[in-house]
Please model this.
Amino acid sequence: MAAQAITLNPMTRGPEAQAFENFLAGKIVGQTEAVRAVADLFQLHRADLQSTGRPVGNLLFLGPTGSGKTRVVEAAAEILFGDPRALIKVDCAEFQHSHEIAKLVGSPPGYLGHRETHPLITQEVLDRFHTDRLKLSFLLFDEIEKASDALWQLLLAVMDKATLTLGDNRRVDLSRTMIFLTSNLGSAEIGNLMEDRLGFAPKPRLTGRLDDQIERAAIEAARRKFSPEFMNRLDKIVVFRPLHPPQLESILDLELGAVEQRLLASARGKFSLRVGAEARRFLLREGTDLQYGARHLKRAINRHLVYPIANLIASSQVLQSDLLSVEYDAGRNCLTFSRDPGKATLPPAPADSGVFAASAANSCGACAAAPSPAFTAQTEPHPAPERQRARRRER
Model:
């Protein structure tokens, strides 16, 4: 009797990729498509199925400022390597002229200043966060539309052959690299489409149609700017949607949690922080600007909360183990601060865990409810053997 065929589910991720997607979704608000795209590439890398001789993936992130394009890459690096700076970030505003490409790849021998011009992208820099279990690099070209045509031409070979030739003819292998390009192209068109959405009362009747219009506007702007050869080398284009008040509320919770973590990590700030409901609404009102996205909310939190707390700590008005309460005074239209001595409830220190400690047991949907340190701890971000090999190469 022949064995019965077993039906498979190709939509099920592996434990590592599922945990990674869950943790990333817990850090990124309102950009589900971007989270899924990065998780897809990570699953492709873990399955060792990326195309031979190409990068792991080439993603173009489009959308208005403050919508989280750069934050997605930083959050992915933070989850996998424990450091949001565990990537190579190229600010394309510094490469608006063709001769500035030398800062990226180094000057060729014979040119003035050859030995003083150190390339930004080298194999050692690209591989410095590799571990025995994860050999993956993140390369981010921020605001790619501001770069000169020379940089775009350079990227054609990088995105297609995963090889970068430096000024001294050394070759950099990018076959284990995710390449991210961010751009604000189409922001003006998206802003015009969003005019009817301003304020705290979004109109539900526009939801589906507006999202389609935003995506078309951003992609058309990119096609007008970049050549067909450039666009054809992209694996996926992700359009980031503008953030609305409900999503900014979730970001407010994340930002307040980050402020509390900074207080707990500081030498003089080990106290609890409690922000009342009215105070949260005040911060949200002050920080809501659909044109500038989450960055405006961060500025409002710094101006109305973080700077005053810094003054309270510096003047010793709040001490360790105190409970600092923040409320809203409607009469003065500002936040007020008070402390309860010795009432702090400090969380226990998180236990260290390996970069791939996530197992099938904790990779279910439940782990999306709260971020876990399963991916964040790493015994040594820069392994000693890598440093030794880099020193020998420099000699």
